[in-house]
UniProtKB/TrEMBL annotation:
Protein name: V-type proton ATPase proteolipid subunit
Species whose genome carries this gene: Rhizophora mucronata (Asiatic mangrove)
């Protein structure tokens, strides 16, 4: 039971890392889209 606790923690860390990486990669794209939307309007 307790052995799986450490594994779950590692999995959660990986998921958080993925989310942060994806956000860092996508955030500039979203900002560009927002800028284009503002210029169009």
């Amino acid at each position: 039971m307790f052995d799986h606790g450490s594994e779950d923690g590692a999995v959660e860390d990986l998921r958080l890392h993925r989310v942060l990486v994806v956000r860092s990669l996508l955030s500039p794209l979203f900002f560009k889209h927002r800028r284009h939307a503002k210029t169009k309007n």
